[in-house]
Amino acid sequence: MKLNVSSLIKTLAEYNPIVNQTAIAMNKALLVLGNILLSIFLLMEMMRWYELIGSTSKKLPQKLWLEITFKYLVCWLLIQHSANILDGLMWLLDSGAHLISKVVKIKDYSYTFDIGHTKGVAKIILNLIGGTVSLIANTIAGLLIFMRYVELYFLKVLAPVLLACLVNETVRPIAITFLKYFSSYVLIALGLSIISAIYTALSPTNFFAAIVEVEKIPYGVALASIFEGGIYIVAIVSVGRIMRQLLGV
């Protein structure tokens, strides 16, 4: 399985149009729930203000009415167009991967085990180990791309409900965390694009040339290739965690 750079920067509609249409349909179905939550938050806020100002026998100032109206109107628009807004956010954050692919001319990367000049029983053993590492590395790369899109579709469906939390101070962190999670999954494309660019430019020999003389070590090329595969696995698995840590989620 190649770390396909072109698939990393596909929109949700391009990656799987059928699943995207299903996600949009479910998103629209949850608009009712989002609007109900927004109405409940509005009612709670109005009751709070009436209780606060009513004790002073005064009316709600016109400026306060305008602020409340504007806040809830903006949130209502976010809920109604949440699918398109998230698509736009994804396009914006994916622009980093687009720019890298244009400047560096990234090619699809697929880890391949290099046995070198190993012969005999050692060749069989190292081939088995290297082949396993290669299978694991490239399978994980494919699964990461697949699970990234699954998570993005999932979050797109829940958007109307979670974005409604923006207007309420108590539950606002839920909406902010939701937006951070969505952004972190989108930015995985940028992280994997960087790794793809780095690994495409490196070979096992170049990778360890600054540390040891690979050719002078018994089975050096094969061992270096296995080690490179291990580092590759750690690098691609840690991308999602790094992006979430950077965004504080």
From TrEMBL:
Keyword Transmembrane helix: yes
Transmembrane regions: 30-50, 70-93, 124-147, 178-199, 219-239
Domain of life: Bacteria
Keywords: Membrane, Transmembrane, Transmembrane helix
The name this protein goes by in its record: Conjugal transfer protein TrbL
Organism: Streptococcus cuniculi
Lineage summary: Bacteria, Bacillati, Bacillota, Bacilli, Lactobacillales
